[in-house]
C-alpha cells in the first residue's frame, strides 16, 4: 500500500484503500473511453446522457474553451445538466481613450452550436429540453495597474466599457456575460453601468472571483508571514462583496485550483532527519502535490462569501455607491462554486519521512501473465512510492484532461489510490525508465458528488437559502469525461 501524499497527522493508510486498475477504469472512465472510439456517433443512451440531475435545485454553469473543443459536443449531449454555458471567446483591451472587445465564435459551427443551445430541443425519448443560457466569458486582457486605475476612477470609462460589451451581447443575442479580471474585487462601482445595461435588456451578469484560501498553521516566523499575507488577500477578496453581490446575478468562485501547479506546503515535522531536505522543508522550500478540490474548502468558501455579502445593509449600500438598482438582484444572487473537471500531474521524487533523504521507488509485483520480453518492446516494470516515504515536487505540475488520463492509465497500468475524505484518486507513473516519476490526481465522480452534496447541505440552511442558494461552476467541459458529467 502506498503512502498518503497528505501531510502528517492526517489520515493514515487505513483511510486509504487501493483500488484495482480494472475498477478505476470501469467506474471513472468507461464512458469517456468508449466515446473516443465512437467519436462520430451520439453516445447518449437513456440511462446516461439523459439521466436526471443529481441535485436539480443547484444551478450549473459550464465553461467551454476553444482549446478543448470536444466540450461543445459534451454540452449538447448533456444539455439538460446545464443552466448556463459560458464559451471562453472574448477579451477586453484597454486602448488609449477607450476599450476594445476582441474575439468571436471561432467558426461558423461554433455560432450554430450556441444558437442551438438557446433553442428548446427534444431528447431521444421525446422529452422537451429547456433552452440553455449562453453567457460567454469576457476577460480584461493585458491590463496594467494604470489601466485599472484609469478605469476605476473615471465614470466616463465605466460607460465606455459597458457600451463595447453590450454591442457584442446585443449583436450576437447572448443571454448575458461572465466577467473576469485580475481585480474584480476592486471594481464594484465601475461595473455598475455594465450591470444596469445588461439588466435593462434582461441579460445576466456573472462575476468571476478568486477563492479564499485556508490560512494554515503558523509554525514559525516565515509561516506566520505567509499566513498574514493569505489573510490579507482573503480580506481583499471579500471586502467589497456586498456591492458585487448587488450588481451580479451570479458569482462564480474559482474553487477549482485548491492545490494548483505549485503544489502545497509541507509542515516541518513531517520529515525527520537533519539533511538538506529537512532543512529545505523547514524553510518552506519543499512542496508536495495535492488533490484539486476538497468539500471542506468549498464549504469554507461558500460560508465566507455568503457572510461577507450580507455584512452591510441594503439601504446603506445604495447610498454608498449611489446604486440605482433593484434590490431583487441582491436576493437573487447565487454563488457558483467552482469544481474542476481536469486532473493534475506533478513531477515528483520520494523522500523517506523518518530518514529525511531521497529514496528510489520500489517495483510493484509483476503481473502474473507478464511475457518474458526484453528491450524496447518489454512491458514496463511498474514502480510505486516506497514504504514510509512521501512524494515531493521536482517542478511545477500541470493540468491534464480526462482523455490524457485515460491514455496514461492504458499505457502504464498504474495502481490507483483513493484519498479520503476528498474522494479523489491518484496514481504514480514513469514515462521512460530514468526520466523521473509523476503523480497524477484524478477528479472522480465521488469528488464531484462530495462538492455537490456540500453545497446542498450548506444551502439547506434557511439563512443561506434566503440569499438565493448556490450552485456549481465547472471548469471546463472539454477536459471532462462523460462519466463525470453523468454524475452531475
Ligand atoms: C475619463 O476618460 C475619458 C475617456 O477616455 C477621457 O476623455 C477623460 O479625459 C477622462 N477624465 C479624466 C478626469 O481623466
Ligand atoms: C481535506 C482537506 O481539506 N485537505 C487539505 C487540502 O488542502 C488544503 C490546502 O492546500 C488543506 O488546508 C486541507 O487540509
Automatic annotation (TrEMBL):
Entry annotated with the keyword Signal: yes
Membrane-spanning segments: none
Citing just one GO molecular function, the answer is: oligosaccharide binding
- Residues in the signal sequence: 1-35
Q: Which UniProt keywords apply?
A: Signal
Cellular component, GO, one term: endomembrane system
- Coiled-coil residue spans: none
> Entry's PANTHER family?
CHITINASE DOMAIN-CONTAINING PROTEIN 1, CHITINASE DOMAIN-CONTAINING PROTEIN 1 FAMILY MEMBER
Family per UniProt? Belongs to the glycosyl hydrolase 18 family.
Supply the name of the protein.
Chitinase
Q: Which organism is it from?
A: Coniella lustricola
Amino acid at each position: 500500500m502506498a503512502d498518503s501524499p497528505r501531510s502528517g497527522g492526517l489520515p493514515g493508510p487505513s483511510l486509504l484503500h487501493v483500488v484495482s486498475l480494472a475498477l478505476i477504469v470501469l467506474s471513472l472512465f468507461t464512458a469517456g473511453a468508449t466515446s473516443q472510439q465512437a467519436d462520430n456517433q451520439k453516445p447518449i443512451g437513456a440511462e446516461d446522457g439523459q439521466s436526471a440531475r443529481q441535485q436539480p435545485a443547484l444551478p450549473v454553469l459550464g465553461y467551454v474553451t476553444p482549446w478543448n473543443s470536444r466540450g461543445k459536443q459534451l454540452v449538447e449531449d448533456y444539455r439538460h445538466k446545464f443552466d448556463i454555458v459560458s464559451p471562453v471567446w472574448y477579451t477586453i483591451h484597454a486602448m488609449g481613450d477607450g476599450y476594445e472587445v476582441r474575439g468571436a465564435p471561432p467558426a461558423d459551427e461554433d455560432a450554430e452550436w450556441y444558437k442551438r443551445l438557446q433553442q428548446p430541443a427534444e431528447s431521444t425519448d421525446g422529452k422537451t429540453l429547456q433552452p440553455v443560457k449562453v453567457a460567454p466569458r469576457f476577460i480584461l486582457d493585458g491590463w496594467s495597474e494604470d489601466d485599472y486605475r484609469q478605469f476605476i476612477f473615471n465614470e466616463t470609462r465605466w460607460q465606455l466599457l459597458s457600451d463595447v460589451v453590450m454591442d457584442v451581447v446585443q449583436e450576437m443575442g447572448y443571454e448575458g456575460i461572465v466577467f473576469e479580471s485580475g481585480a474584480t474585487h476592486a471594481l464594484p462601482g465601475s461595473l455598475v453601468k455594465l450591470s444596469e445595461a445588461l439588466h435593462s435588456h434582461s441579460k445576466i451578469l456573472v462575476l468571476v472571483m478568486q477563492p479564499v484560501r485556508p490560512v494554515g498553521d503558523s509554525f514559525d516566523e516565515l509561516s506566520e508571514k505567509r499566513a498574514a499575507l493569505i489573510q490579507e488577500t482573503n480580506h481583499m477578496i471579500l471586502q467589497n462583496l456586498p456591492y458585487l453581490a448587488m450588481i451580479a446575478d451570479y458569482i462564480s468562485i474559482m474553487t477549482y485550483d485548491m492545490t494548483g501547479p505549485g503544489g502545497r506546503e509541507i509542515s516541518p515535522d513531517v520529515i525527520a532527519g537533519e539533511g538538506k531536505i529537512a532543512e529545505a522543508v523547514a524553510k518552506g522550500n519543499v512542496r508536495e502535490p495535492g488533490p484539486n478540490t476538497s468539500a471542506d474548502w468549498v464549504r469554507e468558501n461558500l460560508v465566507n462569501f455568503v457572510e461577507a455579502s450580507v455584512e452591510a445593509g441594503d439601504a446603506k449600500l445604495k447610498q454608498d455607491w449611489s446604486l440605482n438598482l433593484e434590490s431583487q438582484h441582491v436576493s437573487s444572487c447565487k454563488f457558483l462554486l467552482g469544481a474542476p473537471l481536469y486532473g493534475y500531474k506533478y513531477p515528483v521524487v520520494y523522500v523517506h519521512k523518518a530518514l529525511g533523504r531521497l529514496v528510489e521507488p520500489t517495483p510493484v509485483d509483476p503481473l502474473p501473465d507478464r511475457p518474458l520480453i526484453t528491450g524496447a518492446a518489454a512491458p514496463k516494470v511498474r514502480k510505486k512510492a516506497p514504504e514510509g516515504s512521501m512524494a515531493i515536487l521536482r517542478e511545477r505540475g500541470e493540468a491534464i484532461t480526462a482523455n490524457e488520463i485515460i491514455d496514461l492509465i492504458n499505457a502504464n497500468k498504474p495502481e490507483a489510490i483513493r484519498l479520503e475524505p476528498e474522494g479523489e484518486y491518484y496514481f504514480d507513473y514513469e514515462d521512460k525508465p530514468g526520466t523521473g516519476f509523476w503523480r497524477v490526481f484524478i477528479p472522480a465522480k465521488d469528488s464531484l458528488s462530495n462538492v455537490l452534496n456540500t453545497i446542498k447541505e450548506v444551502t439547506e440552511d434557511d439563512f443561506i437559502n434566503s440569499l438565493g442558494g448556490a450552485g456549481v461552476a465547472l471548469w471546463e467541459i472539454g477536459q471532462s469525461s462523460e462519466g463525470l458529467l453523468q454524475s452531475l
